[in-house]
């Protein structure tokens, strides 16, 4: 019989979500690269592999480069992305992805992302 999980959000994981994986698209992209950590792909390949819009994916891939999760390399005018080699970052990604198997953690992560998105009311006239 399965027991209830007691996994809680650590400060390090919360900071990781709030400052680096701070959108659902980034979460999906981190998962995509983590599933195959040696993958090196173009924006178009990632967009196709994740079923997302190429322009949005391009913006978020560059954002992940900016926060040190991915690196990019230009060869013959083609930019490719891959996970960074930094051991601490790779371990943090692994810890995040493992924690995502816990329902309560996912709820807390989703809440952190939504809170971080700073939704403001719209006024349609």
Kindly describe this structure.
There is one protein chain. This protein has 125 residues and is mainly alpha-helical. It has one domain: Winged helix-like DNA-binding domain superfamily/Winged helix DNA-binding domain (Arc Repressor Mutant, subunit A, Orthogonal Bundle). It has 6 helices and 3 strands; from the N terminus they run H-H-E-H-H-E-E-H-H. The chain has a 3-stranded antiparallel sheet. Strand 2 and strand 3 form a beta hairpin. The N and C termini lie far apart (56 Å). The mean pLDDT is 89.
Biggest sheet strand order reads 1-3-2
**Could you report the average pLDDT, rounded to the nearest whole number?**
89
Number of beta-strand segments: 3
Task: Tell me about the largest β-sheet.
Answer: 3 strands, antiparallel
Counting helices, strands and paired strands, the structural category is mainly alpha
**How many individual domains?**
1
Helix run count: 6
Can you give the helix content as a percent range?
A: 55-70%
- Return the CATH topology: Arc Repressor Mutant, subunit A
The CATH superfamily turns out to be: Winged helix-like DNA-binding domain superfamily/Winged helix DNA-binding domain
- Taken as a percent bin, the fraction of beta residues is 5-15%
CATH top level class name: Mainly Alpha
Instruction: Return Rg in Å.
Output: 16 Å
Q: Rough shape? A: globular
Distance between the termini: 56 Å
CATH architecture: Orthogonal Bundle
Poorly predicted runs are: none
SSE order: HHEHHEEHH
């Amino acid at each position: 019989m399965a027991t209830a999980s007691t996994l809680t959000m650590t400060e390090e994981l919360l900071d990781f979500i709030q400052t680096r994986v701070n959108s659902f698209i980034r979460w999906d992209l981190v998962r995509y690269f983590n599933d195959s950590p040696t993958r090196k792909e173009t924006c178009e390949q990632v967009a196709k592999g994740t079923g997302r819009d190429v322009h949005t994916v391009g913006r978020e891939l560059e954002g992940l480069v900016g926060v040190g999760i991915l690196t990019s390399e230009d060869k013959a005018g083609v930019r490719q992305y891959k996970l960074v080699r930094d051991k601490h970052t790779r371990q943090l990604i692994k810890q995040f992805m493992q924690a995502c198997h816990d329902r309560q953690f996912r709820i807390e992560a989703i809440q952190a992302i939504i809170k971080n998105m700073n939704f403001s009311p719209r006024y349609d006239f």
